[in-house]
Automatic annotation (TrEMBL):
GO biological process terms, semicolon-separated: vacuolar acidification
Source organism of the structure: Fraxinus pennsylvanica
Annotated protein name in UniProt: V-type proton ATPase subunit a
InterPro entries listed in its UniProt record: V-ATPase_116kDa_su, V-type_ATPase_116kDa_su_euka
MF annotations from Gene Ontology: ATPase binding; proton-transporting ATPase activity, rotational mechanism
């Protein structure tokens, strides 16, 4: 069953058992090692083992090459940041690419980084100079207004003073003319001033600190700048005020300078002469226009450079990551004592043997090496990795199984059955063909736009949904199927497959929901008769139907799990598990719950009114009592006694023989630890047959306790797992009732008001409730419950799930790896 290409009428089931693997050894000449690993990475069918695990990364042979690749990767990350800041996007890597030498790329990347860093540095300097000049221009304009207004007010005061006095005094400090005293002109103090810009949010504190530091011996004048100014230091837009501080003496000046530095105030020189002010403004305006032209030219040049880098970025990035992965892999190889060969070991599928040998031969020819690489199979008792060949349809289902645990090498894979059982059990809980159609349309959108969405970056939730698009597709199709069986379209029944078998007893149909229905036609051909909807018996009828159906489905799936444990035992040649695990488990489960399932089917077929609860309870409490009206078939009492006896016998059958037989098996094989390894390739497949206790110290007490736990778990689990399948009934009922509530209490209620506004509001509420609750929350709920039924109730009957995945060395995986 697990062997590839075995004879028979049917093709091999690649998903039923993992691919047969073997451990291979490659002896590669050192001159062709790089190309060989490159070709094997293109092939992607070998998982290398690290033969230098005891060495640190810095002690390995190709540490310097990895360091070079890391440095190039750093430069490429720098380019990516610059490209994204500039608003460009790297071009998609072309399929056909010319070969590029790593040494040439290293030189090219170095030159581009130097050029780009220089452009950025020059651009930052020019931008800072431009921002400083823009601030300087604002200071000249605003401070000039201070002096202009002060000069005009001083001249007015002088004219007024001259009219009152014959004498005429010189005007030295126009801004202080209001406080001018009658002191001697020769003793007047010459005032100094500092101008600049201070952030507006700090202006009040700035003024207060100046006043306190100089004890009020300064005069501060501020003017608000209307628009935010680009700060030369931070490069951010900041709201600022232009200030002018007038002071007397060097000591005050030093204090003011320190306060300006502390508050981040930018100071600029200012000429008091009006002619010089006009000349300075003209010079600053000219320099600003020149800087603007230079900055624009630099931005264009930088954009062209980044665009050139962006066109080749993906190609360079892939090459660097590819080379780095090749050297990482080469570091896992051990060097031969002659220093002329590298020795590699790794796992590969048996079917890939010819492809690997071809890749080795091609690498030798392309390198003009005189010695061909050697390929040989190693025989080992180590457990091989698990490898399933999946496609875009089956991979999502396999991921559901792998999330629980990776299959042990070549054990039966639940993923084969999960493809059908998972969406079906989901649909049993989600049965409504209206909601199923909504899910189907959403999934078809993902499938139709598959190629476009694959190339886009999606959000976490969207990416998860897109990855499971084929799972949701089958969930939708099965939901439509079960919805047709339940006859529910947004909780509304339809006569799709013919007319109802029931009719009203009288023309007025006044008692249609109680006792007024009689059967007038043949049974409704498919699914639930629409006449049940709205009747008094609807809920008891559907409860009975769905509960019994849940038990039937649960017992069937648990039986499938136990049967798969038989195929595992047969495949691995473990007869102990066949006779003392599979057979007693089948007997125990079917003696109780298999018998219950048969009773349900007989009751459906015969229309009997017997109470199955009573039958099952008294089968244990009073097995010898007469059944009376609860008897469904002749000889039922005897049958129940036999089944009860078989169930009781199967418990010690599971518990006792297996530990003693394992003890005998251990004693028989004791001392054969040094037996020669088999030469055939079958050794790998037969290895799992040997119990692990044969190669370790055998502790009978541990084995017995383990078997006791396993037996108790199965016996109790048979009851709890069967009860767990009743969630199918509960979730289905909840979904149906919620759908009915939204339809009757929202949509029909709004319709009854005969008001357009209320109707529109009702329709909107109904749509949002249906999408939010039934199509999102209920879908997630049913998905999680179906997941639990597979992981716990189904897989614990046979699935060990203690293997490890096959991760081949492949360049196709580089695109999905995070740097």
């Amino acid at each position: 069953m697990g062997e590839r290409g075995s004879g028979g009428c049917c093709p091999p089931m690649d998903l039923m058992r993992s691919e047969p693997m073997h451990l291979v050894q490659l002896i590669i000449p050192i001159e062709s090692a790089h190309r060989t690993i490159s070709y094997l990475g293109d092939l992607g069918l070998i998982q290398f083992k690290d033969l230098n695990a005891e060495k640190s990364p810095f002690q390995r042979t190709y540490a310097n090459q990895i360091k070079r690749c890391g440095e190039m990767a750093r430069k490429l990350r720098f380019f990516r940041e610059q490209i994204s800041k500039a608003g460009f996007s790297p071009a998609v890597r072309s399929v056909t690419e010319a070969d590029l030498n790593l040494d040439d790329l290293e030189v090219k990347l170095g030159e581009l980084e130097v050029e780009l860093v220089e452009i950025n540095a020059n651009g930052e300097k020019l931008q800072r100079s431009y921002n400083e000049l823009a601030e300087y221009k604002l200071v000249i304009q605003k401070a000039g207004e201070f002096f202009q207004s002060a000069m005009s007010s001083a001249e007015a005061f002088q004219r007024e003073y001259a009219s009152n006095q014959s004498g005429e005094e010189s005007l030295e400090t126009p801004l202080l003319s209001e406080q001018e005293t009658t002191t001697d002109p020769s003793k007047q103090v010459k005032l100094g001033f500092i101008t600049g810009l201070v952030p507006r949010e700090k202006s009040i504190a700035f003024e207060r600190i100046l006043f306190r530091a100089t004890r009020g011996n300064v005069f501060l004048k501020q003017a608000v700048v209307d628009n935010p100014v680009t700060d030369p230091v931070s490069g951010e837009k900041v709201e600022k005020n232009v200030f002018a501080v007038f002071f007397s003496g060097e000591r005050a000046k030093n204090k003011i300078l320190k306060i300006c530095d502390a508050f981040g105030a930018n100071r600029y020189p200012f000429a008091e002469d009006l002619g010089k002010q006009a000349q300075t403004i003209n010079e600053v305006s000219g320099r600003l226009s020149e800087l603007k032209t230079t900055i624009d030219a630099g931005i264009v040049h930088r954009g062209n450079l980044l665009q050139t880098i962006g066109e080749q970025f993906e190609r360079w990035n892939f090459l660097v990551r590819r080379e780095k992965s090749i050297y990482h892999t080469l570091n896992m190889l051990s060097i031969d004592v002659t220093k002329k060969c590298l020795v590699a070991e790794g796992w590969s599928p048996i079917f890939a043997r010819k492809q690997i040998q071809d890749a080795l031969h091609r690498a030798t020819q392309d390198c003009n090496s005189q010695v061909d690489a050697i390929f040989q199979v190693l025989h080992t008792r180590e457990m091989p990795p698990t490898y399933f060949q999946t496609n875009k349809f089956t991979s999502a289902f396999q991921e559901i199984v792998d999330a629980y645990g990776v299959a042990k090498y070549q054990e039966a894979n639940p993923g084969v059955y999960t493809i059908v059982t998972f969406p079906f059990l989901f649909a049993v809980m989600f049965g409504d063909w209206g909601h199923g159609i909504c899910l189907l349309l959403a999934t078809l959108y993902f499938i139709i736009r598959e190629k476009k969405l694959l190339s886009q970056k999606l959000g976490d939730i969207m990416e998860m949904t897109f990855g499971g698009r084929y799972v949701i597709l089958l969930m939708a199709l099965f939901s439509i199927y079960t919805g047709l069986i339940y006859n529910e379209f947004f909780s509304v029944p339809f006569e799709l497959f013919g007319r109802s078998a029931y009719s009203c007893r009288d023309p007025s149909c006044s008692e249609a929901t109680t006792v007024g229905l009689i059967k007038v036609r043949d049974t409704y051909p498919f699914g639930v008769d629409p006449a049940w909807h709205g009747s008094r018996s609807e809920l008891p009828f559907l409860n009975s139907l769905k509960m019994k159906m849940s038990i039937l489905l649960g017992v069937a799936q648990m039986n499938l799990g136990i049967i798969l444990s038989y195929f595992n035992a047969k495949f691995f040649g473990n007869s102990i598990n066949t006779w003392f695990q599979f057979i007693p488990q089948m007997i125990f489960l079917n003696s109780l719950f298999g018998y219950l399932s048969v009773l349900v089917i007989i009751k459906w077929c015969t229309g009997s009114k017997s109470d199955l609860y009573h039958v099952m309870i008294y089968m244990f409490l009073s097995p010898t009592d007469e059944l009376g009206e609860n008897q469904l078939f002749p000889g039922q009492k005897t049958t129940q006694l036999v089944l009860l006896l078989l169930a009781l016998v199967s418990v010690p059958w599971m518990l006792l023989p297996k530990p003693f037989l394992l003890k005998l098996q251990h004693n028989r094989h004791h001392g054969e630890s040094y037996a020669p390894l088999p030469d055939s390739e079958e050794s790998l497949q037969s290895e799992p047959n040997h119990d692990s206790h044969g190669h370790e110290e055998f502790e009978f007490s541990e084995v017995f306790v383990h078997q006791l736990i396993h037996t108790i778990e199965f016996v109790l689990g048979a009851v709890s797992n069967t009860a767990s399948y009743l969630r199918l009934w509960a979730l289905s009922l909840a979904h149906s009732e919620l759908s009915s509530v939204f339809y009757e209490k929202v949509l029909l209620l709004a319709w009854g008001y005969n008001n357009v506004i209320i109707l529109v509001v009702g329709i909107i509420v109904f749509i949002f409730a249906t999408v939010g609750v039934l199509l999102v929350m209920e879908t997630l709920s049913a998905f999680l419950h179906a997941l639990r039924l597979h992981w716990v109730e189904f897989q614990n009957k046979f699935y060990e799930g203690d293997g490890y995945k096959f991760y081949p060395y492949s360049f196709t995986l580089l695109d999905y790896e995070e740097e």
